[in-house]
Amino acid sequence: MAIEKVLVIDDEPIIRKSFEELLRGKRYGVTAVATLRSAEKLLKRDPFDLIFLDVRLPDGDGTELLGLIAKQPTRPLTIMMSGFGTVETAVECMRHGAFDYLIKPFSLSQIEVLVKKAENYQQVLKVSDRLTAQCSDSSDLTGESAALRALRTRLRKVAPTEATVLIQGEPGAGQELVAHEIFRASNRAHAPYLTVNCAAEAPGMLESIIFGHEKGAFTGATERREGQLELADGGTVLLTEIGEMPLHLQPKLFRFLQDREFARMGGGKPGKADVRVLATTQRDLRQAIARGTFREDLYHRLSVFPLDLPPLRERHADIAPLAGHFLARLARQHGLVTPGFSAEALELLQAHAWPGNVHELQSAIARAVLLTEPATAVQAGALGLPAPGAISHSPVSVETVRPAEPLPSLPEVEKAHILRTLKHTGGNRTKAAILLQISIRTLRNKLNEYRNAASVPQ
């Protein structure tokens, strides 16, 4: 959930109480105060995701607080409230940075609608921020193998167009990296870029996630919800594992690709969205067509410009450059200085067969960064890979693979990463939560767990 903590600033006790009862009942954290001064003290101490701010308060005009709110690291959204609403006042508030405007008296359902609207906006904003940060990095398609050079040539041709692209390859080969390269080299690079995993979502919810739903469309649908196509209007939507899309949804997607029209679950007037669609698959869709699990017309509409991504084992010349690229980026994200790989580590990287492709390489480098001391070259043991010659190409059980040294558990690696990040921020939990891309509440809960198990520096 994008919205966790809400601040309500209003001098009317009944309004503060109404907000508290409504939002706490929906499991939001709510703090309510009556003055600007009280709000200023809170904002300097605690992060908030959403703020309801009255225009007229006992100690000043609510718009005076918008400047301070804009400087908050969590970038909370602000909804102004007033019993003396005019169009001019609303426009003025929006000009000063308000997200929306609420005229008193208002109903509880209006509050719910605005909170949901803020959640949807924060979700899109979070994704866009992450991708903007990624765009400042060099390309993840690093390397000089002949296969990769050919792929980059085709990518440069298709990226500036509006063509739908189907990216095919083995699991972990980097299909999503290719899709992102297409996005950031496209004319939509500064618009929303949203991803839907067709294999990860429950079939009954996938339709709602992609196309949205109307109020009452199914049990629990208490309000209208925009789908990813609608939220990404003007931008790009990536549908990963498109081969797992249920057969009954495929005609709806075909219709959207054909005329950019979609229908939300539960009926209602059809909507339109200007969205470029990219898709990835690990499956052979032609075999799926033969089995009757994938529509042939949809396949042809998706594969206007197909891209086949070769596995990492066929791009041997790309392993070392790609490993160096991942190492530099991860070290920069964690504020570390890492001079590179030892000779033994590079030899191990080159010798490994990489059955998990690029994703396996990226995971190995991420683990190595966490286990390597600052200003020290990554050693072979930190990669967690079997020694050369220990890899059998015949099926083996997990028990037959023994790492060169004992491996920490996942919780241990997570704890080390969190504490290192907290140390890097000088103990500032808000900054640490932002770097870790988790909520301050999640960070606080993690630290409480560690404190209960052992002493943790405050």
Keywords:
Rossmann fold; 5-stranded parallel beta sheet; 18 helices; Helicase, Ruva Protein, domain 3; globular; 14% strand; 16 strands
Write structural notes for this entry.
- With 458 residues, the chain is α/β, with parallel strands linked by helices.
- The chain folds into four domains: 5-123, 3-Layer(aba) Sandwich (Rossmann fold); 137-310, P-loop containing nucleotide triphosphate hydrolases (Rossmann fold); 313-407, Helicase, Ruva Protein, domain 3; 412-453, Homeodomain-like (Arc Repressor Mutant, subunit A, Orthogonal Bundle), CATH 1.10.10.60.
- The chain is 44% helix and 14% strand.
- Strand 13 (261-262) and strand 14 form a beta hairpin.
- The longest helix is centred in the first third of the chain and has 28 residues, at 108-135.
- 31% of the residues are buried.
CATH architecture of the largest domain: 3-Layer(aba) Sandwich
The averaged pLDDT comes out at 84
Quick one: CATH superfamily of the largest domain? P-loop containing nucleotide triphosphate hydrolases
Q: Flag low-confidence runs.
A: 132-138, 391-404
What topology, given as strand order, has the largest sheet?
A: 2-1-3-6-7
Helix content: 40-55%
How much beta, percentage-wise? Answer: 5-15%
Largest sheet at a glance?
A: 5 strands, parallel
Number of strands: 16
- Judged by helices, strands and strand pairing, the structural class is alpha/beta
Gap between N and C termini = 28 Å
List the total number of helices. Answer: 18
CATH classification, class level of the largest domain: Alpha Beta
Subunit arrangement of the protein: single chain
Which shape, going by the Cα principal axes? globular
Radius of gyration: 25 Å
